[in-house]
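Researcher: Structure for this, please.
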Amino acid sequence: MTESGLVSGMKQSISALSLVVPDYDQAIAFYVQKMGFDLIEDTKLSETKRWVTVAPKGSNGTKLLLAKADGPEQETAIGMQAGGRVFLFLQTDDFERDFERYKEIGVKFLEEPRHEPYGSVVVFQDPFGNKWDLIEPK
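Model: Predicted structure, token format:
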């Protein structure tokens, strides 16, 4: 143990973020078929639940766990998990390529691209109301 109470040599990472969606197949259609994400896993857990994870092409980090809303309380969270702020940040190695491709397939952009001191960025919204930054760091 170190002074901070952490175990020396300890390594952790966030493997997935839960994203509440109205329907598994709708979410897969958007993220995999439209955005080009990889479908990592789709396992049936019960008659109503599945374990569905997706990740951007070429990603070896955090995945999205597509979690179907279970009841009215969870349904109100769809698209508002960050209280109306940008919730997810999709980093790219080619901002112009991805911006143009997403425009062509009808992704809803909420602003024009900006070139900030930290990189190129634009806010878009998925069909469920979640705000995303598409960002290429400098």
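Researcher: Any notable elements?
Model: The chain has a mean pLDDT of 94. The beta strands are 16-21, 38-44, 50-55, 63-68, 86-91, 108-109, 114-116, 119-125, 131-137.
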